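pinned: reference chain
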Amino acid sequence: MTSKTAIEFKVNGESHKLEVFPMARLLDVLREQLHLTGTKEGCGEGECGACTVKLDGQIVNSCLVPVAQVNGSSITTIEGVAQGDQLHAVQQAFIDHGGAQCGICTPGMILAAVDLLERNPEPTEADIRNGLAGNLCRCTGYMKIFESVVRACQNR
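pinned: its structure tokens
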């Protein structure tokens, strides 16, 4: 039986020290111990992107990350994308242009789009499609999602 261990990391700029089972999934620790339920579980296998977070500046599927791996790291979840009451341009565009449907994929899509725009502020349609390729949506044909990201680029 594995025992718990202490880890320290930052989530959305806030420091945390937790006693965790080292192989617990980051997704579960975020949702169950830190009560950050914006990050969703879709497939649990790293295929859908619903659980996307940024780990030390890189997007990852939190369902695949053992929490011991984040010791000393900095994580951004969907809750950390807005600046106070001011939504990020991508979040606002998803609201304004129908990019959010049932909400399961939305946090992961938004984090992937934010990451894309940080790396490439003027992406082409192909860049957007490639940037969101690791995120699946079961509700739409993706057009409103892509339109939302295009609008976010225009409104930055």
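why pinned: DSSP finds five helices and five strands in the chain. Helices lie at 26-33, 89-96, 106-119, 125-131, 143-154.
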